[in-house]
Amino acid sequence: MDKEVAVLQRKLETELKNFKDSQKEFNKLVQTQQQLDGQFFENKSILEELQMLKPTNTVYKLYGPVLVKQDLEESKQNVGKRIEYITKELKRCAENINQLEQKQDKYRANLQKLQQQYQSQMALAKQ
């Protein structure tokens, strides 16, 4: 009887560790998603500003401490590519978050089942 309780306790501890690890990973992904959202909206506003410019306007890009003249169309393309990349990363991040949520649901169900088994074993041991 004591061996069964010890085995259940180890399973419970392992499942709890897995659940906590998945929570940490989930929190990291949510943080990454928030950063990507910020970058997305920043680049979106930059593109809107660039769209308002006339072809005769001059655009400069900051490279370290130096401002370098850049072609307007090239700037629009660069920002567009950046937005495209960020959009793909946001989609990938959302998919990973969904997968982790499903994984966490399984861990919760397993934890609940193991806790019930552990409690019933403890009750039997006391009798």
TrEMBL record:
GO cellular component terms, A-Z: cytoplasm; prefoldin complex
Give GO MF terms, alphabetically.
protein-folding chaperone binding; unfolded protein binding
Residues folding into a coiled coil are: 83-124
The record's section on InterPro entries has: PFD_beta-like, Prefoldin
GO biological process, alphabetically ordered: chaperone-mediated protein complex assembly; protein folding
Identify the CDD domains for this entry: Prefoldin_6 (cd23161)
UniProt keywords, alphabetically: Chaperone, Coiled coil
Q: Which family does it belong to?
A: Belongs to the prefoldin subunit beta family.
Which PANTHER family does this one have?
Answer: PREFOLDIN SUBUNIT 6
Query: What does the subunit comment say?
Result: Heterohexamer of two PFD-alpha type and four PFD-beta type subunits.
Q: What is this protein called?
A: Probable prefoldin subunit 6
Q: Which source organism?
A: Anopheles sinensis (Mosquito)
